[in-house]
Amino acid sequence: MRDMVKLPAFAMHLSAGVLSRDRSLLQAGFDIYFRTVIMKAQFLILSAIFFVLLSCKKEPEEEVSLEGDKGVSLFFSSNRTGNYEIYVKKDGSLVQVTDDKNLDSWWLRVSPDGKTLICYRSRAINKNNNYEDATLWSMNLDGSDAKKLIALDDNQWKAQGVADWSPDGTQLVMAAIEGASNRWHLFITDSNGKNAKKVSSRTSIYLDPSFSPDGSKIVFSSFPLGYNGTDLAKLEIYTMNTDGSEETRLTFDDIRDHDPYWAPDGKEIAFESAMEPEYLDVGKWALRSVEPDGSNLRVILHDGHINTVPRWNKSSEVLYFHKLNFGAPGFRIYKVSKDGSGLKQLTSGPGHYDDTDVEVVD
Known about the structure:
Elements: H1 9-16, H2 18-27, H3 32-54, E1 73-78, E2 85-90, E3 93-96, E4 103-110, E5 116-123, E6 135-140, E7 147-150, E8 157-165, E9 171-178, E10 184-190, E11 197-198, E12 206-211, E13 217-222, E14 236-241, E15 248-249, E16 257-262, E17 269-276, E18 284-290, E19 298-301, E20 306-312, E21 318-324, E22 332-337, E23 344-345, E24 355-361
């Protein structure tokens, strides 16, 4: 789907994001029937999306300012120039960080000391979020001194992605399809990508890990204990110690959950959920949160659109994320207060493209 150059950005991103992850899950041992379901879903997505976009003509957007966000740096990935590159927006100025037409650069994270950026890169011909073609890189915040940290061959992985920093900057946690089990598992490495250690143990699927603020735990998405089916609605939020012990399930509602991130103050965990998964076969996605003990599960933002990959600001009061309004030309970066108020668009501009994978430095 992503090879269809004329395809609207909406369809292209969803194929690379939600459905690309699903295709990777299929490679982790799911059956041929489910592969057929995904292929049919992709066809239905194309048909529905073309109908929606053709019936929703909008005036070109102007690039918005960061008024009210003075001193905040927004790093994000965008295909506004063709392939996916990393940009940073601060105090009204937009600067391109990476520049390589042969590579897509995506899923970026800034180190706790604010000096180093990690991201995944894959061949541009395969389009972004291609976990099966991903290599992990590090670089300075201006894009200089780029170094490859982890190639798939380094650990006999079949796919890798979603790396994040430990709070002290000495380690990385990530998910990868290991060759031995052919399933997604969680791994912790040194900050340079060396000495990968598997920390997940169940015969399941483990996705979307990140550290707790004190570095003692990992929060992630996984299937429940004993479940070996293919229903993605079974993906729930869990925590465990960094050595893999004491897995604790936090959500119990059969709503597909992804990308959990602990608030810096340690009081709650924000994530995204497919609240209406059948809508246009891609679903309406909401931002939700839960406390670390599993209590006070609540909705932060459910407005009938696609809201994904929430990232907290330093005060634990605001979430930054990428959002697609159905009928809009593509994903854009937004912010919202943790109580669901103050929704504000932070990136825009003319054309069909996607701004995704936001990282906030404040």
